[in-house]
UniProtKB/TrEMBL annotation:
Residues 1-86 form the Thiamine-binding protein domain. Belongs to the UPF0045 family. It comes from the Bacteria. This is MTH1187 family thiamine-binding protein. It comes from Streptomyces ziwulingensis. SUPFAM superfamilies: MTH1187/YkoF-like (SSF89957).
């Protein structure tokens, strides 16, 4: 998510959202462009809602990009997918 109308330096606003994700206890990964969260639909959507609210409390506008990979029965996708790519790179 990106806060709009707060200038170019948005790190402190993004940190507000990431704090919500980290406090959720759900598996997650943050990189330079995105934060990925893994879990059941309702619990992930609740975290997204609360993260947006945290940014919205300080920014006049919030832009959100959301991508979902819905695969019932799959867990630890954040780690497993990266490990698969690394295995191919090593081979």
């Amino acid at each position: 998510m990106t806060p709009l109308g707060v200038g170019e330096d948005v790190g402190e606003y993004v940190a507000d959202a990431v704090r919500v994700v980290r406090a959720s206890g759900l598996p997650h990964r943050t990189d330079a462009m995105f934060t990925s969260v893994e879990g059941e639909w309702d619990e992930v959507m609740d975290v997204v809602r609360r993260a947006v609210a945290a940014v919205e409390a300080r920014a006049p506008r919030v832009s959100l990009v959301l991508k979902a990979d819905i695969r019932p029965g799959v867990t630890d996708g954040l780690t497993a997918k990266v490990e698969t790519v690394e295995r191919h790179l090593a081979g």
